[in-house]
Amino acid sequence: MAKTDVVIAGGGPTGLMLACELRLAGVEVAVLDRLAGRGGESRAGGIHARTMEVLDQRGILGGFLDAGQRLQRAHFSALWLDLGRFETRYPFILMVLQATIERLLEERAAELGVRVRWSSEVTGVHQDETGVDVEVRGPEGVKTLRADYLVGCDGGRSAVRKLAGIGFPGTPATMTAMLGDVALADPPTEWIFQERREHGSFSVLPFGEDWYRVMTNEFDHVADRDAPATFEELREALVKIAGTDYGMHGPRWVSRFSDAARQAAEYRRGRVLLAGDAAHIHFPAGGQGLNMGVQDAVNLGWKLASVVNGHAPHRLLDSYHAERHPVAEGVLRNTRAQTVLGRPGEQMTALREVFGGLIEIDAVNRLLGGMITALDIRYPMGGGHPLLGRRVPDLDLRTPGGDIRLFGLLHAARPVLLDLGASSGGGLDLAAVAEGWADRVDLVEARCREGGWLLPVVGEVPAPAALLIRPDGHVAWAAPVGAAPETPEDVALRTALTTWFGPAR
């Protein structure tokens, strides 16, 4: 029986990002996918600010920026949000197709020694106290892989989730949406985005020199989810809603989806975990799905690696559900709201006009923009400094080795204890505290500009004297300026180091 550390079912963006995270920590990974290979479908079309930040944290964002186009606004049910004033290096949406995202992540995974095993379908899952047996049907028949853990990144109809017996509660579909990448003989003179009409809404977006993305939303009509989506069905829906098909022909890809919104009851059951669409599905309003999956992977990867490598106890994995399940709950909530706001009718038009007026208020724009971009996430870590639990801003730092951006310290996916002056003048002795974790935590001395730090949605917060930054870029401990030895900050740092990175050596 073949043995590996972690089996990942699903070779999409979530599975590939997770594989990269695990390999950075030296974990052996097998990535399986039931498909025969990349289909080349365009699928999702954008990366939000927080996803760009996590890619930047690993030093791999450049290729994505080169491949995409920048749009300095997001939307909430086609009501526009201005991202230009958000405190991030990436106050825009990067328009880049999922096919390109997968290619770039697969190239990165290959650099780290990972190859996707195509035509490999998970058909059985059997776990015990020491590991999990994964039955895989492939070109050579059914074989079994033994692993420490199995992660289902295999989509909304996840085989791993079903085989593990994890519930998937939520709300059923109330409408049918279709998407097609097509050529148009008579395209509109301007791009159309979620234009509401009597029978639904539609979009026509130029996606290349000779092709367009056409989308239709029909409310109170639920199609058979198992029936194949066809070009003729898309054409008929567009004619019904828009009154024309714009001379649609030459389809590259046609897909159907709905507003069904469901979430796994558990993100972890024993040695089986879920991430991406296997853990949550929703209407793709605001383009949040792919982004949430990649961020699931970055949250889970370092934790799973720490457990597999024997640094941290198994209970660390419980924090994955505790942190990411509420995030997906919020996305399901806001996409349900966006779907309702997109319905046709004069009453809904009146509500949209009122809501659109509210969005023009800066505080509302920031609230909704932070929600869509995931820049507002704060993981539950108790009270204390306002940075605690939030993503750390990418500050310009001065170090003894030269100037560096803070995200540059996270390229290796290791935690960083950042000393911004806490150890000077008889303050906290961070080197002494961190000595027991020197094999797992990088201690970096640096200085940054004086004054408060600006955070998206939150605004200005007091600059800390020191930070403990997890590999996913979230702050696990922060000391205020003026902290001294033998203070609660000293005790809190030791507690945080032990909680997240295991006991001292």
Give the count of structural domains: 3
Low-confidence stretches: none
Largest sheet geometry: 8 strands, mixed
Give me the CATH architecture of the largest domain, please. Answer: 3-Layer(bba) Sandwich
Class inferred from helices and paired strands: alpha+beta
Rg (CA only): 24 Å
Distance between the termini: 34 Å
Q: What form results from the Cα inertia axes?
A: globular
Quote the beta fraction.
25-35%
Residues in helix, %: 25-40%
Tally of DSSP helical segments: 12
Q: Can you identify the CATH class of the largest domain?
A: Alpha Beta
Whole-number mean pLDDT = 94
The oligomeric state of the chains shown is single chain
What fold name stands as the CATH topology of the largest domain? FAD/NAD(P)-binding domain
Query: Got a strand count?
Result: 28
In words, what does this structure look like?
By secondary structure, the chain is α+β, with helices and mostly antiparallel strands. The chain has three domains: 2-170 and 262-373, FAD/NAD(P)-binding domain (3-Layer(bba) Sandwich); 173-259, Alpha-Beta Plaits, CATH 3.30.70; 396-501, 3-Layer(aba) Sandwich (Glutaredoxin). 29% of the residues lie in helices and 28% in strands. It contains twelve helices and 28 strands. The chain has helices at 13-24, 49-57, 61-67, 98-111, 159-163, 231-242, 289-308, 318-341, 346-359, 362-373, 430-434, 488-501, and strands at 2-9, 29-32, 69-71, 73-76, 79-82, 93-95, 116-117, 121-127, 132-138, 141-152, 170-171, 175-184, 192-197, 200-206, 212-219, 248-258, 261-263, 268-269, 272-274, 280-281, 396-399, 402-405, 416-419, 442-445, 453-455, 459-461, 464-469, 475-480. The strands form eight sheets. Strands 1, 2, 7, 8, 9, 10, 18 and 19 form an eight-stranded mixed sheet that branches. A five-stranded antiparallel sheet has the order 13-14-15-12-16, with helices on one face. Strands 24-23-27-28 form a four-stranded mixed sheet. A hairpin with a 5-residue loop joins β27 and β28. The protein is globular.
